[in-house]
Design goal:
heterodimer, A: 112 residues, mainly beta, four-stranded antiparallel sheet, 11 strands, 52% strand, B: mainly beta, six-stranded mixed sheet
């Protein structure tokens, strides 16, 4: 089945130690998104790629970066994780912006 | 910018009772509207979407939603709640500029 896969499902990292989360898709969608979701809150958009064009939300901290080496893969890099970065990170794709999203299962990040 | 309001951050219903989750949006132009469900430690799964076709939209798991332009509402209903329906539900809207907005979510508890 076509899908969005996030690895790992659970990630524990040390305070200040760089960490990378990965997302892959078999849907061949143009747009890939990274969302941060903290407990009992709605997902918050960090950035998205339309094809190779990177779009950063204005309030996304510089500590967060992203790479999309090809259509299928997108990575979220957190350069120096702080305790406040502990959250669920959701990857999503859509054929075009504004269409319905297909979400991955998420990566739960814990910072110790 | 759009706003999406979900009335009631927590809703409890008895098993077998009607489920009604409320969503209102702000827009002078009919947008696309979505309902997503999120189970614990999972990504978001699309329940249903309205894209300017029929105003009554049927989705998965017995859910449906009715688009009411005069009320700017898109409430989610299910005639008979099951224990497996316990989850977080998010209403979302995309506007003509292709921006996507989530509501703050409603946590549904089903009481045996």
């Amino acid at each position: 089945d076509a899908m969005v896969i996030q690895n790992p499902r659970y990630q524990v990292t040390q305070f200040g130690k760089p960490v990378t989360l990965s997302c892959s898709q078999t849907l061949n969608h143009n747009v890939m998104y990274w969302y941060q979701q903290k407990s009992s809150q709605a997902p918050k958009l960090l950035f998205h790629y339309y094809d190779k064009d990177f779009n950063n939300e204005a309030d996304t901290p510089d500590n967060f970066q992203s790479r999309r080496p090809n259509t299928s893969f997108c990575f979220l890099d957190i350069r120096s994780p702080g305790l406040g970065d502990a959250a669920m990170y959701l990857c999503a794709t859509s054929r075009e912006q504004g269409w319905g999203y297909t979400f991955g299962s998420g990566t739960r990040l814990t910072v110790v | 910018a759009q706003s999406v309001t979900q009335l009631g951050s927590h809703v409890s219903v008895s098993e077998g009772a009607l489920v009604l989750l409320r969503c209102n949006y702000s827009s002078s132009v009919p947008p696309y509207l979505f309902w997503y469900v999120q189970y614990p430690n999972q990504g978001l799964q699309l329940l249903l979407k309205y894209t300017s076709a029929a105003t009554l939209v049927k989705g998965i798991n017995g859910f449906e939603a009715e688009f009411k332009k005069s009320e700017t509402s898109f409430h989610l209903t299910k005639p008979s709640a099951h224990m497996s329906d316990a989850a977080e539900y998010f209403c979302a809207v995309s506007d003509p500029s292709n921006q996507f907005y989530f509501g703050t979510g409603t946590s549904l508890t089903v009481i045996p």
